[in-house]
Structure formats: structure tokens, C-alpha cells
Amino acid sequence: MTRASFEAQAAHRPGESPYSPSHAVAAPGIQRYAQTWTGDNTTSWETLRWNIRTGLQMSLSGMFNVGHDVGGFAGPSPDAELFLRWVQACCLNPRMVMNSWKADGTNNVPVLVAPVVTPGAVTRRVYLPRGPQAWIGFASGQSYAAGTTVLVPAPLECLPLFVRAGSVLPLADSDGRLPTHDDPVRNVTFAAGR
User: Fold this and answer.
1) Which helix (H) or strand (E) holds 8?
2) How far, in Å, are 22, 72, 174, 191 from residue 1 at the CA level?
3) Which of 44, 55, 100, 162 could form a disulfide with 135 if both were Cys (CB 3.0 to 4.6 A apart)?
4) What pLDDT digit, counting tens, does each position of 36-79 carry?
5) Which of 34, 89, 91, 40 is nearest to 63 (CA)?
């Protein structure tokens, strides 16, 4: 099935690389056709450790294009420390996805990134999806209405990055130097109207 999907994509768009994620455990050779992840995991420190071990085992078995649902797909929302450690552990995986389903409707997708993809641009037009009360500019702290399109500054030194209003992000205090694993972590709440 994975090979059929790969081949159909290749036939539909010759010259482009097919993209095919597979949630299946499969026979040797699947790495030629798809990437996969360690399954719909749960939020816990044990699962974080298990994901790393499973990803390494999959890579040793030939399935090197792997990743994990960062922060846990199901279960409680991760606290700031667990979420930060999960992001650190997964940021260099070939597949890094912040994907979740939580019974209370929360999720592990706190930020929206709008990279500049046009040469010489110093602004970026961004659609901010409906859902949160508002979106907050990470660098500026400016509040933007959800469900609107906005034009934001995008100089070379600033990536347009938006946080859902009400999100709490763990940030390391690095005092302008390169951060280390020993830097203290503080939780920053992004509130609408700040």
C-alpha cells in the first residue's frame, strides 16, 4: 500500500519527490517509500525515553526517516519542563511533529511560524487561523485578531513568529549568549492585549 501511494504520487507529479508518511509497521524496504513515527504516544517522561529508544531501533533496522509526536499525542498536556525536553530531544529527527489530541481540547501546537520566502522582503503577509482568542507576535508582544490576514515586519533579524493567546512557553534565560542545558527556564505567558 505504501509503495502504491509512493508510485501514484511519482506518476502524478514527475520530477518531484513524493511525500508519504506511514503509520504502519511494515516489511523491510518500506524506507524507500515512506517515513514513519513511533505511533500515537502518550504524555509522560517514560514515553519520551521510549520514543528515543524506539527511533534508534527503527534506524538500526533501516527505517531512518522517523520521528515522534512531540509532547505526547494523547493523555494530559505536558508541563513546561517535559514539553521543552521533548522538543530538545526531537528537534534533530528527520520527522518532528507537534501533533496531539487531548480530551479537553488543548493541544501541543502553541506557535505559528511564517518564514519569509521572497528575496528582499521586509514584511510578510500572514493569515492567522481562527481558534485562539488572539495571536501574539513573539518578538513584539503585539496582539492580532484570530481569523484575519495581517502584514507584519519581517527584517532579516526577525522571524515572524506568533503564539496563541494564553499559551505558556518555557524559555531559557541566556543573557544574550548561546544557551546551555544549565540555563534556568522560565515560563512566559502570552496574553492578548499586552
Assistant:
1) helix 2-12
2) 10, 27, 48, 46
3) 162
4) 888 889 999 999 999 989 888 888 888 888 888 988 999 888 88
5) 34
Q: Got the DSSP string for 23-88?
A: -S---TTGGGT-EEES-S-BSSHHHHHHHHHHHHHHHHTT--SEEEETT-SBSSPPPHHHHHHHHH
Q: Considering only CA atoms, give the Rg of the chain.
A: 19
Q: Which of 73, 52, 87 is closest to 185 using CA atoms?
A: 87
Contact partners, residue 48, CB within 8 Å, separation at least 6:
82, 85, 86, 89
Residue 125 C-alpha cell reads as: 503577509
What single DSSP character describes residue 100?
-
Q: Which three cell numbers stand for residue 87?
A: 522538543
d(CA 136, CA 143): 5
Q: How many CB atoms lie within 10 A of CB 105?
A: 6
